[in-house]
């Protein structure tokens, strides 16, 4: 059972500043009660191959137990990552991560490797701050991908149009373009340099809430966090001559803002493959998905079918045909990625069945040999 008692509600849990809540407590107690070792809860600040930096709440390095290592080798998405809550124990002079607790609100990128395993970018998040630099676009196709990923996580997406001062007179046009594809996500024009929009955005960072920053390198994520915090929490880098940012964040890390909110910073990403589930894509394209529900036929492909509400909206100028094309592209990608994942699961099941059959034959041979 948990070392920290929750019976006295007047006592603040030492991990509360790191986002500890009743859901996490229940998950930890379930693991701790089944363990033969005394366990402590901790949150992963950053991870590396074979180990992680955890908060107890003090910071400590921890190795993975054999069980956690074996599970991660079979499925890398189960390995501890930034934001994870874990159960740890002391073994001699080192800490061991004995188990990863059940996740909530995980930002998952579809696996691009041959094994098709998904990559968990951040776990147990409440909100995703998508940073899109005003001087680099905006790139609506990339923004739609980021939004699909954020909606699929179960967290609330918020869009920050960073470096707003560099857009000049184009800022209203940039904001209008961004807002045309955000569908339910709040948009803030911010500038770490001038302070524009920082007060409004900062009000969203509530104590105990965990945010993850998502955006390309050079989108101004580090500068924005430093401006919100009022001090330097993250390194900032220069923009290369090709206007692509340098990777100032090379590993995932958990930061705490002065107001009590938690921020997970991850390296800038240029390629995002949407998850196999279509829910994230349809939330990001809620306008198109809503029209699709009005089509005469449920299996409408929105091509040349009669009674297609989507094509009617395009013909009437209510829907940009390029947005429709991007929706179809991401839905096809999600379907393909889901099929890859299903194929991987089928392959793994076949391996498990074959291993079970071999074990059964070996057991039978042993019995006959007795």
UniProtKB/TrEMBL annotation:
Binding site for GTP: 215-223
Keyword vocabulary terms for this entry: Cytoplasm, GTP-binding, Hydrolase, Metal-binding, Nucleotide-binding, Ribosome biogenesis, RNA-binding, rRNA-binding, Zinc
One MF term in the entry's GO annotations: GTPase activity
Localization per Swiss-Prot or TrEMBL: Cytoplasm
Co-factor remark: Binds 1 zinc ion per subunit.
Primary location class: cytoplasm
EC number(s) reported in the record: 3.6.1.-
Gene3D superfamilies: P-loop containing nucleotide triphosphate hydrolases (3.40.50.300), Probable gtpase engc, domain 3 (1.10.40.50)
EC primary class: hydrolase
PANTHER family noted in UniProt: SMALL RIBOSOMAL SUBUNIT BIOGENESIS GTPASE RSGA
Similarity field: Belongs to the TRAFAC class YlqF/YawG GTPase family. RsgA subfamily.
Name this polypeptide is given: Small ribosomal subunit biogenesis GTPase RsgA
Organism: Nocardiopsis sinuspersici
């Amino acid at each position: 059972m948990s070392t920290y008692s929750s019976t006295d509600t007047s006592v603040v849990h030492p991990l509360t500043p790191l986002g500890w809540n009743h859901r996490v407590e229940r998950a930890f107690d379930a693991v701790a009660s089944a363990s033969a070792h005394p366990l402590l809860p901790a949150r992963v600040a950053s991870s590396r191959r074979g180990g992680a930096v955890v908060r107890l709440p003090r910071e400590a390095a921890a190795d993975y137990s054999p069980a956690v290592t074996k599970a991660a080798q079979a499925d890398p998405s189960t390995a501890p990552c930034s934001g994870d809550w874990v159960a740890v124990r002391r073994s001699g002079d080192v800490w061991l991560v004995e188990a990863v607790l059940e996740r909530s609100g995980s930002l998952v990128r579809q696996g691009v490797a041959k094994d098709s395993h998904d990559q968990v970018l951040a776990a147990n998040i409440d909100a995703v701050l998508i940073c899109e630099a005003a001087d680099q676009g905006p790139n609506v196709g990339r923004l739609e991908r980021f939004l699909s990923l954020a909606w699929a996580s179960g967290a609330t997406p918020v869009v920050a149009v960073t470096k707003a001062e560099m857009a000049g007179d184009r800022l209203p046009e940039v904001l209008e373009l961004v807002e045309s594809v955000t569908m339910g996500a709040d948009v803030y024009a911010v500038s770490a340099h001038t302070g524009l929009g920082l007060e409004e955005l900062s009000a969203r960072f509530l104590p105990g809430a965990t945010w993850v920053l998502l955006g390309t390198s050079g989108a101004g994520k580090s500068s924005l966090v430093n401006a919100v915090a009022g001090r330097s929490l993250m390194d900032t880098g220069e923009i290369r001559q090709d206007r692509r940012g340098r990777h100032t964040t090379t590993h995932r890390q958990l930061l705490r803002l002065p107001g009590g909110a938690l921020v997970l910073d991850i390296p800038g990403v240029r390629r995002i493959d949407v998850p196999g589930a279509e829910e994230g894509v349809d939330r990001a394209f809620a306008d198109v998905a809503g029209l699709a529900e009005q089509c005469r036929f449920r299996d409408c492909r929105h091509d040349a079918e009669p009674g297609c509400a989507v094509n009617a909206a395009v013909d009437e100028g209510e829907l940009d045909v390029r947005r429709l094309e991007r929706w179809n592209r991401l839905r096809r990608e999600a379907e393909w990625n889901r099929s890859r994942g299903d194929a991987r699961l089928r392959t793994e099941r076949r391996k498990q069945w074959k291993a079970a059959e071999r074990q059964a034959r070996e057991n039978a041979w042993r019995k006959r040999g007795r």
